Structures are given as structure tokens and as C-alpha cells.
């Protein structure tokens, strides 16, 4: 029998986007180039040679987009700031016109009673900083703190939630190891260095935000986390799970929440960490009021000697449901929340100097790319997305019923947009966008989500 799943009164329902994926206006009003501008303008990187030059033109259409958020009934909007709009050279000169855009966006959100969740970095590093070495260069962490201070100075009278990074693991590994994302580098040492400097920059930015804040603020970070499962019960596959989990999940969770680094467990990490992790770094990194979790799928691995670092490869199990990019595995969001709560949020006696209050947790992204489109009558019947949402949000509820204090759920994404190396081929929105005319249409999943927000729950 169906049960009505009720959420706490103050549960936050939101949607997320990111600057490069939705803004467009890639070279307007004094914005400098980012590594994504360079990457997409280099042939061979993006499906069909597509770019985010215009994408869904949120830069110009943000009022219309806020009106859609209002219509859906969102409590909160998670967006990112394009660093190169604010500091076109990455450091130094401030471009006021860039700040003005976010100023207007924040005002429009507040006018509509939508809480801004501001993220400072969703992968679009200013190109001039990449020219000086990018994230493998420790100076980039300090540049990030400078940038954080500038944005805080301007917006912290109105913005209370400050997320430093979105998925630093992906920025490091896909940007500097697999090379699938900008800046497209394939160097394992550069990736390890990047990861440490991204985390360090979180800590340095947290200090800068607190120093410049014009009121009380919460500082958070958003991580991509996946439960890891073995392809078989063999000893080798189970050991592969431990290694993959270390690199995929513990590499960010341990420094942020425990003040330790599991890097030493890998030969390349051992080699690097003697010089890479300086005294005091780990204490700085461990500075968090809010942990954001992005969940899409699980990772199933089997032992594979050929694969560098982890000696494991990902497999796609038979007999499961798949989307345009991943396996659909709703229980994973429950498993993840239970594990994080047990391993990281249940207070343990802290060693001296490392005491920290337990951060809040939220789902900051969850969503699915499934084929959809306008039907003859102008509606978008994306039942598979609605099912995905129902099943995943029900699993969040299940974790909450088991005692995990989840504070909110953000859908990825508000609207269809530029999906990185996939270009425009994968649609994630609750709002359908005709990429030629920029016409927006709320999908059936968007109406379903809207009802969930209004009732603060749903039949399941
Ligand atoms: C990420 C990013 C988003 C993606 C989304 C779907 O998680 O990779 O935060 O930018 O678009 O996850 O891939």
C-alpha cells in the first residue's frame, strides 16, 4: 500500500545549475577566458563541436528563469559564480560588471523568496591561472582565496550559504588525469597535486569568507560520492573495492571531515605527499559547516592489473536499468547517506586541535539524463525522470527515517543545459529548453517536483 512520505518542515527543496553550463555570454561585459572556453574552442573535445558560448543564455534570461523557479515553488537555487567574470586575470583586477550580474541574480532570487546557495567554483578556472600551472600549482589555492574574499565582500550581506567547490575530485581527476574535461591534461601526478590544492583552497577560502563576511555565513563544499560494489565476491574484486573507494570517496571525505589524507595508500601519493602536503594544510582543510553530496549512480568494479593507481576497472552489470550516462541505482543514495553518517558525522573524540562541530548534510545534486522532448501538444512527458526522482527521494527519506539528518535535496538540473563533453546530447532539466529559440517548458517531472514541494512529501 502507498504510504505518504513526509519531510521535516524546514526541509530545503531546490535545483542546481553551474555558470559555464547555463550562462553563455562567454566574452561579455569584461569576462576573461576560462579553461572551458579554451577547451571547447579546441576541436575534438566536445561532441559535435558544441560549446557553452551561448548555452541557455541564463546570463540574459535569469529573470525568466527565476520566475520558473518560483512557479515550481523552489525554496533554494544553487548556482556557481564564474571566477573569470570577477577576476578576468584570475587575481588582481576586479571586474565590477561581473559582480553586478550576480548582484542582480541574488536580488531577483530574494525578491522571490528563493534562498541563494552560492558555489564559488564549478570547474571554470580562469585561463591565465592555467597558463601559470593551474591546480597543480599551489599558488592557485591562494588565488582562489583572494577571489573568495572579493565575492564575499560584495554579496555576503545577502548570501548566507557559501559553497567553495563543486566536485573537486572530478575537477582534479577528469581535468588532469583522464583529460575528459578541461584543461584536458593526462598526468597522474598533476591530478594528485590538483586534488590536494583544490582541498587546500577550500580551507583558505573558508578563512577568507569568514574574514570578509558581513553577517553569519555557512561554509560548505559539494562532493561527488558513489558507493562502490564488487563485480563478484572474489577476494581480488573485494580488494579492488577498497582501493576504488579510497580514491573515489575517502580522498575527499577524510581530509575534509577527519583531518587525514589517504593518499599515502597509493605509490604515487606516497611519492608526492612528502612535499605536497605541507604542515598545517590538513588542519586548514577541515573547515566545514555543510557537506553537499552529489549522487547519480554506484560504481561496480573488478580487479584489473592494467589500470594505473587502483588496479581496478568499472563494469556495467547486466540486467539493470540504465540512463543516457549511468546505471540507475536508487538504493545507492541511501547506502551513501548511512555510511557517511556512521563514518564521518557521528562524533568521535577529536584529537587536540582538531575538534570540529558536525557539519549539516544535504543532497546538492541528483538527477538523470533520459531522452525527452516536446509532444504534439507542447507537453514534455518525461515519466522516466519522475520515476527516478520518486525512487531516489524515497531513499533519502528512508535514510532520514533511519536517523540521518539530511537538510535538503537539490535536483540537477533546473533546466536542460550544456553537459560538458557530451555537449547538448544529454538533458537533465526539470525544464525543457529548445536550444535554438531558448523557449522554456516545464516538464511533467517539474510539475511532479512542484507538487512534492507544496505537500512537503509524496505518496510512495
Ligand atoms: C557534475 C556536475 C554537473 C553535471 C551533472 C551531470 O556532477 O558533474 O556538478 O555539472 O552536469 O553532474 O553530469
Oligomer, anyone?
single chain
- The CATH homologous superfamily is called Glycosidases
Instruction: State the low-pLDDT regions, or none.
Output: none
Please tell me the CATH architecture by its name: Alpha-Beta Barrel
- State the secondary-structure class: alpha/beta
Work out the count of structural domains: 1
Provide structural commentary:
There is one protein chain. It contains 15 helices and 15 strands. The protein is of the alpha/beta class and 460 residues long. The chain has one domain: Alpha-Beta Barrel (TIM Barrel). The strands form 4 sheets. It has an 8-stranded parallel β-barrel, surrounded by 5 helices. Strand 13 (431-433) and strand 14 form a beta hairpin. Helix 3 packs parallel to helix 5 (96-111), helix 9 (188-212) crosses helix 11 (267-276) and helix 13 runs parallel beside helix 14 (383-401). The longest helix is centred in the middle third of the chain and has 25 residues, at 188-212. The model has no long low-confidence stretch (mean pLDDT 96). Bound molecules: D-gluconic acid.
Summarize the helices and strands and which ones pair or pack.
Blueprint: E1 4-6, E2 12-16, H1 19-22, H2 35-40, H3 58-72, E3 76-80, H4 83-86, H5 96-111, E4 115-121, H6 127-131, H7 139-155, E5 161-166, H8 168-176, H9 188-212, E6 218-224, E7 228-230, H10 235-258, H11 267-276, H12 281-285, E8 290-294, E9 299-303, E10 312-315, H13 331-345, E11 360-365, H14 383-401, E12 406-412, E13 431-433, E14 440-442, H15 444-455, E15 457-459
Parallel strand pairs: 2-3, 2-12, 3-4, 4-5, 5-6, 6-8, 7-9, 8-11, 11-12
Antiparallel strand pairs: 1-15, 9-10, 13-14
This protein binds D-gluconic acid (GCO).
Amino acid at each position: 500500500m502507498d504510504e505518504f512520505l513526509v519531510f521535516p518542515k524546514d526541509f530545503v527543496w531546490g535545483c542546481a545549475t553551474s555558470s559555464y553550463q547555463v550562462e553563455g555570454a562567454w566574452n561579455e561585459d569584461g569576462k576573461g577566458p576560462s579553461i572551458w572556453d579554451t577547451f571547447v574552442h579546441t576541436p575534438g573535445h566536445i561532441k559535435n563541436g558544441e560549446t557553452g558560448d551561448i548555452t541557455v543564455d541564463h546570463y540574459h534570461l535569469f529573470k525568466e528563469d527565476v520566475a520558473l523557479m518560483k512557479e515550481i515553488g523552489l525554496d533554494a537555487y544553487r548556482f556557481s559564480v564564474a571566477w573569470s567574470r570577477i577576476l578576468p586575470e584570475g587575481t588582481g583586477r576586479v571586474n565590477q560588471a561581473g559582480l553586478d550580474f550576480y548582484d542582480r541574480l541574488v536580488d531577483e532570487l530574494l525578491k522571490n523568496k528563493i534562498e541563494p546557495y552560492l558555489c564559488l567554483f564549478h570547474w571554470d578556472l580562469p585561463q591565465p591561472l592555467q597558463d601559470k600551472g593551474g591546480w597543480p600549482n599551489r599558488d592557485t589555492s591562494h588565488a582562489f582565496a583572494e577571489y573568495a574574499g572579493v565575492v564575499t565582500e560584495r554579496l555576503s550581506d545577502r548570501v548566507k550559504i557559501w559553497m567553495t567547490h563543486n566536485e573537486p575530485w572530478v575537477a582534479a581527476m577528469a581535468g588532469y588525469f583522464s583529460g575528459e574535461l578541461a584543461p584536458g591534461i593526462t598526468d597522474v601526478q598533476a591530478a594528485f597535486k590538483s586534488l590536494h590544492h583544490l582541498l587546500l583552497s577550500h580551507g583558505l577560502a573558508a578563512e577568507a569568507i569568514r574574514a570578509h563576511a558581513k553577517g553569519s555565513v555557512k561554509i560548505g563544499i559539494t562532493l561527488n560520492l558513489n558507493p562502490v560494489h564488487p563485480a563478484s565476491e572474489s577476494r581480488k574484486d573485494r580488494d579492488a573495492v577498497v582501493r576504488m573507494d579510497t580514491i573515489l570517496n575517502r580522498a575527499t571525505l577524510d581530509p575534509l571531515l577527519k583531518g587525514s589524507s589517504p593518499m599515502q595508500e597509493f605509490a604515487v601519493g606516497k611519492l608526492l605527499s612528502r612535499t605536497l602536503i605541507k604542515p598545517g594544510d590538513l588542519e586548514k582543510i577541515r573547515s566545514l559547516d555543510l557537506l553537499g553530496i552529489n549522487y547519480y549512480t554506484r560504481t561496480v568494479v573488478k580487479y584489473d592489473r592494467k589500470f594505473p593507481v587502483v588496479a581496478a576497472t568499472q563494469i556495467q552489470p547486466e540486467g539493470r536499468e540504465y540512463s543516457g550516462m549511468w546505471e540507475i541505482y536508487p538504493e545507492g543514495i541511501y547506502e551513501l547517506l548511512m555510511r557517511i553518517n556512521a563514518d564521518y558525522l557521528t562524533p568521535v573524540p577529536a584529537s587536540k586541535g582538531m575538534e570540529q562541530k558536525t557539519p549539516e548534510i544535504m543532497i546538492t545534486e541528483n538527477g538523470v539524463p533520459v531522452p525527452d522532448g516536446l509532444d504534439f501538444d507542447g507537453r514534455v512527458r518525461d515519466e522516466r525522470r519522475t520515476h527516478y526522482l520518486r525512487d531516489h527521494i524515497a531513499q533519502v527519506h528512508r535514510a532520514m527515517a533511519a536517523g540521518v539528518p539530511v537538510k535538503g535535496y537539490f535536483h540537477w538540473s533546473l533546466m536542460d543545459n550544456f553537459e560538458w563533453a557530451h555537449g547538448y546530447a544529454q538533458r537533465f532539466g526539470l525544464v525543457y529548453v529548445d536550444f535554438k529559440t531558448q523557449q522554456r517548458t516545464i516538464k511533467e517531472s517539474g510539475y511532479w517536483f512542484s507538487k512534492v514541494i507544496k505537500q512537503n512529501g509524496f505518496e510512495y
